[in-house]
Amino acid sequence: MNRELILRISGTLAPDNKISLRTVSHTLPHLQRAIDKVVLYEKYGDLKKRSALPSSLYESADLFLAPFEDGSVKIPLVGNLLDGVGARLNQFLREPYDKAAKDLEYEYGSLANQLDNVRGNIERENVENITQEDLNAGANRLERSYAQTAVLKDINTMLSPLRAKSSVDDTIELVNNTLGKTANYSFSHVNAKTFGKIVTQKRLAKPVKYDGILEGLKRTGGKTFPCVGIFVSALTGQEMNLLFVSEMDAVALNKFNLSKKKFSIWACPLAVYESFDHLRGDIVFASLIERL
Question: Are 217 and 253 contained in the same domain?
Fold first, then answer.
């Protein structure tokens, strides 16, 4: 029990140095889930195929409440965590935390505006020639991004009590003591909101060439993506949602719908933070290249 995390909660979330079970239920379980995901990634190198931590790894992930300090809502958490978990947690958290602490929220603009920029670059031939094969070859990097985004999602949920209007003067602090090194992540009402925007904002990843067939088209009724198609990759055989920002874009591919005719497109994976599923994730149609 020599690896220790500390969760320190102050302000209206901890009146008179007490903490409600409601606040505990909104924070600690999500921290445990984040640690579970880091352990899974360290052990197996991927998360997509694993919905939950197997019981055989509980000992390497479980956090235990150590004795509370008098007059404090400093919650010491100890456990025999798998080697590398503390360092990986720091690696996942550091960049988005630093951006949030400096209020460096980056607005990518609307997805439609992002797509306009992508299409302009395609027309000018100012894009990298990335294929789905290239994505598969870089699967390890994509798995790391996927794991990071999954962990950040849980940390962000842990911070949800801080984003309430009643918590403007409150803080939640996470201290990570790993191998004698201490990393401190102090969240306020303001930077918790910024952190949430940073780690949950959707954006278009770099355009990729996809080859495949179209196995269905339908209207969604949505404003951002009014139409969606079922695109089956010629490389993997996996179905992917092909999203369209306009009905006109969908009409351009209607001739391929249910025809079994292969065609090639530029499309952008829909990413959250730095992550997208390169095998089955949603992709946004940019332009038709050619019939194969």
Answer: yes
pLDDT value, residue 242:
98
pLDDT in tens, 190-213: 999 999 999 999 999 999 999 999
Q: Which domain holds residue 273?
A: 204-291
Predicted pLDDT at 2 = 61
pLDDT (average), residues 263-290: 94
- Residue 281: give its domain's CATH number: 2.40.50
Q: Do 40 and 94 reside in the same domain of the chain?
A: yes
How would DSSP label each residue in the chain? Answer: --EEEEEEEEGGGSGGG---HHHHHHHHHHHHHHHHHHHHHHHHS-STT-SS--GGGGGGT--EEPPPPTT--EEEEEE-PPTTHHHHHHHHHHHHHHHHHTT-------HHHHHHHHHHHHHTT-S---BHHHHHHTHHHHHHHHHHHHHHHHHHHHTGGGGSGGGTT-EEEEEEEETTEEEEEEEEHHHHHHHHHHHH-EEE---EEEEEEEEEEEE---SS-SEEEEEEETTT--EEEEEESSHHHHHHHGGGBTS---EEEEEEEEEETTB--TTT--EEEEEEEEE-
Residue 125 has pLDDT above 90, yes or no: yes
Question: How many domains does the structure of the chain reveal?
Answer: 2
